[in-house]
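INFO  loader      accepted 1 record
INFO  loader      residues=96
INFO  predictor   begin
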Amino acid sequence: MEHLIYHITDFEIVAPHSLWIRFNDNTEQTIDFEPVLHGEIYTPLRDPTFFNQVRLDPEVRTLIWPNDADFDTADLHDWPEIKGEFIRHAQKWETT
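INFO  predictor   done
INFO  writer      dumping tokens
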């Protein structure tokens, strides 16, 4: 079974907590991250100024923030299929 490895080739901040992302297979996603910004690592991203410091890591080609927060590129690629589950998990991080 072939396992595709996705890389981010481009991104743009399009709204508060939202990014448009292009992947190496030429697919695109626009993701509103606000519902998953919970827990120790992701809560700082709720600050729009901090969120907007996102950059593309040149080695692993994923998005990263100054506090080393990141998201698995495969999860971002498949966001429409996994976002509900990801949101449910993230809401639990708020209470732990």
